[in-house]
Write a structure and sequence with these properties.
Layout: H1 14-42, H2 47-77, H3 82-92
Helix pairs in contact: 1-2, 2-3
Amino acid sequence: MYKRQEGARTDLKRTTLLVFAVTLHNIPEGMAVGLSFALAAQHGGDAALYTAAMALAIGIGIQNFPEGAAISLPLRQEGMGRFKAFLLSLIHI
């Protein structure tokens, strides 16, 4: 049975698409962190709101470690150097 590829047809490599997808995925995460701190600042000195915003920022920061690995490991498999793959995984964060 022939399996057709999903999505729009493209000449980009899978790794390039993965990097784009993870980078695009990080935009709403950053917006969520920014919004949570903005709301905390809007409501004065409520320590609970700042604590919640900080917890969200830390949680997303921790989650970005495996995302960085998900970017750097395929780049290494394609033959990219360790340092360059590491830097590109840092840039996406």
